Amino acid sequence: MTEVRVYRRPVPTWWWVRKRSYFVFVMRELSSLFVAWLVVYLLMFLWAVGRGASVYGDFLNWASTPWVVLLNVVALLFLALHVVTWFNLTPQAMVVKLGSRPVPAALVIASQYAGLLVVSAIVLWLVVR
Amino acid sequence: MADSIRLQVTRYRPDADSEPRLQEYDVPLRQELTVLDGLNHIKNEVDTTLSFRWSCRMGICGSCGMNVDGEPRLTCATFLSDYAPGPVRVEPLANFPVVRDLVVDLYDFMEKLPRVKPWIIRDDERSVDDGEYLQTPEELDAYKQFSMCINCMLCYAACPVYGLDPDFIGPAAIALAERYDLDSRDRGARERLDVLIEHEGVWGCTFVGECTRVCPKHVDPAGAIQRYKLKAAKESVKAFLLPRGAR
């Protein structure tokens, strides 16, 4: 076979800002870090509660400092992106069948939001009762 | 509507150029003219040295895939009028090495495709005298979507994972593996899983979803890959929990 001199185009570092869909994808991947942060935050919260009133008070003071509030607001926005994007992708990854008929994609997505709502309601009830 | 539109076409001559450059051509603009028609106009009337692949002009052969304004498209199914007043950038499919002008080197895919064994594998081969393997319409529907792939490589050009890690086996190959796995006549799922369970197999995919969006045949390779991940995960759990005989 004749040797062909091909040109390999380099992938630019900023490839992910060139297209909206790539950008959303990278932000969705990035959102995992914020989800992880919220888990750590929750564990710290539980640890503080377990240590008694003064430690819990210190935790609340720390949690209301501007940078922690800012971090948590950003984390919440990324969490929302995480939820919406992954919920939307679920019907593509899973074919749910009821009998022999596949369940419509919209119903799969809606059932996830319903699940989220139920879990949130239970947590809210636990907190405020 | 103006009667012409400007195409900015990538030129690369391996014997003379150190890297690709853009060359501009004005081509006729009419409602029914496609990007491929524009390229053929250049080739026939303006510059015979321009190289590009095409064959059927009707979205069946899968050979005229190029990046049009940065999006992987079949140029025979992409109308110039949608880009008026222009200019329109026509580049070789992204993520593949350029051989010349708009022609890319597809050797990598040709090497990867047979790895997933995209053919019917049987435990017991029936003889011709025994007749055909029968299939119900439902059994056909199970895999039909994935059998529509025309190997046009638009999904590879749209996949940033493949661009960054050329070892990734890629969307079309996995969708074709799924096509045979879902075929009621096939018994080769185990063999294909052994190939796809590797890191360069399904786990390389991060579910960007662009492959599905650009697919001209609505194959949904991203869906196929995620379903394969589910299968692979189930197998891993089974292998971990169950004794060898029960798997």
Termini separation of chain A comes to: 78 Å
Please work out how many helical segments of chain A DSSP would assign.
Answer: 4
**Number of E-type strands of chain B:** 7
Q: Cα-atom Rg of chain A, whole angstroms?
A: 22 Å
Shape of chain B: elongated
Helix/strand-derived category of chain A reads mainly alpha
Q: How many beta-strand runs of chain A?
A: 2
Strand fraction of chain A: under 5%
| Tally of contiguous helical segments of chain B | 9
Look at the structure and name the CATH superfamily of the largest domain in chain B: Alpha-helical ferredoxin
Widest beta sheet: strand line-up of chain B: 2-1-5-3-4
CATH fold-level label of the largest domain in chain B? Fumarate Reductase Iron-sulfur Protein, Chain B, domain 2
Alpha-carbon Rg of chain B, integer: 21 Å
Instruction: Give the integer mean of the pLDDT values of chain A.
Output: 92
For the sheet with most strands of chain B, the description reads: 5 strands, mixed
| C-alpha termini separation of chain B | 65 Å
Uncertain stretches of 5 or more adjacent residues of chain A: none
Shape of chain A: flat
Order of helices and strands of chain A: HHHEEH
Write the layout of secondary structure elements.
The complex is a heterodimer of chains A (129) and B (247).
Chain A lengths: L19 H31 L2 H11 L2 H28 L3 E2 L2 E2 L2 H24 L1
Antiparallel strand pairs in A: 1-2
Chain B lengths: L3 E8 L9 E8 L6 H12 L18 E4 L2 E4 L13 E4 L6 E3 L2 E2 L2 H6 L24 H8 L9 H5 L1 H5 L6 H11 L7 H8 L13 H5 L6 H21 L6
Parallel strand pairs in B: 1-5
Antiparallel strand pairs in B: 1-2, 3-4, 3-5, 6-7
Helix pairs in contact in B: 6-9
